[in-house]
Write a structure and sequence with these properties.
Helix content: 40-55%
Shape: elongated
Number of strands: 7
Length: 256
């Protein structure tokens, strides 16, 4: 599965990554995922139409191309200790394969009412992210509502979502796209408790891209000051070649 996903992704070059970071200033995390996939997925599908779990798998495949297979995650325990987990992108892609998932599902509540839902997509995620900035509770509720295809009462007639059907719809959404939440678990070395955290592939990759830009900006400053090359020319240089020029200039601290 990991190879199949990675084959659909081509990492954007340095200039494209630089442009992405500039263009997405102020964007929501979901919008940044859409931008990342739009710049790297090779097929013609609109990344906004993909289920959230599939978007995350593609982002993981992109991360493997950008930075390699090793994925270091750090998250806190309630006791105050910090846990560190070393993960493999390939292992995550195998564990969260997502093959053969249905795109809609229906179920009946104890009352006899029924609800049918479709998998949440990137568009739903973007709308929910913008709404969450104002009202997180309403955002979660509205996300469920957007994914409901139909709801029918015990008599078979269309009906509004009540608390029972809303809860059932949310459960169906989780079943339809289990990969939409990548749970990490570790044992705290201090208190021995099992700690669970959620991996956000889009946020992880974006953070690494920001770190890459900070390093590159320092390299641009050093090289432009000496050689008077433009920012675009320096960013377009192969990273190893940039590093050699930095080394020639005396290996300025932090610039490599």
């Amino acid at each position: 599965m990991a190879g199949a996903v990675a084959a659909r992704v081509v990492a954007p070059d340095a200039q494209a990554r630089w442009a992405l970071l500039e263009d997405q200033r102020g964007a929501t995390p979901a919008e940044r995922v859409t931008a990342l996939l739009g710049a790297s997925v090779t097929d013609a599908r609109d990344p906004r139409e993909l289920p959230i779990g599939e978007r995350d798998r593609l982002v993981l495949a992109l991360r493997s191309q950008l930075s390699g297979d090793a994925l270091d995650c750090v998250f806190p325990c309630a006791c105050g200790e910090t846990l560190e987990l070393g993960l493999s992108v390939a292992d995550l892609l195998d564990a969260y394969a997502g093959d053969g998932q249905a795109r809609d599902a229906h179920a009946a509540a104890p009352s006899g009412a029924t609800v049918r839902v479709r998998a949440a997509t990137g568009t739903d995620h973007e709308l929910a992210a913008r709404r969450a900035a104002v009202d997180p509770v309403a955002a979660a509720s509205e996300l469920v509502e957007r994914c409901v295809i139909e709801a029918r009462g015990p008599d078979g007639e269309p009906c509004a979502l009540d608390a029972e059907l809303r809860e059932l719809a949310a459960s169906l959404l989780a079943q339809l796209d289990p990969d939409a939440e990548i749970a990490l678990r570790g044992v705290c070395p201090a208190c021995g408790e099992t700690v669970t955290a959620v991996l956000d592939p889009g946020g992880y990759v974006w953070s690494e891209l920001e770190q890459w830009r900070a390093r590159t900006e320092l390299e641009v400053h050093v090289l432009a000051s000496t050689y008077h090359w433009s920012e675009a020319e320096i960013v377009a240089l192969d990273p190893a070649r940039r590093a050699r020029y930095i080394e020639l200039l005396g290996g300025h601290a932090g610039a490599a």
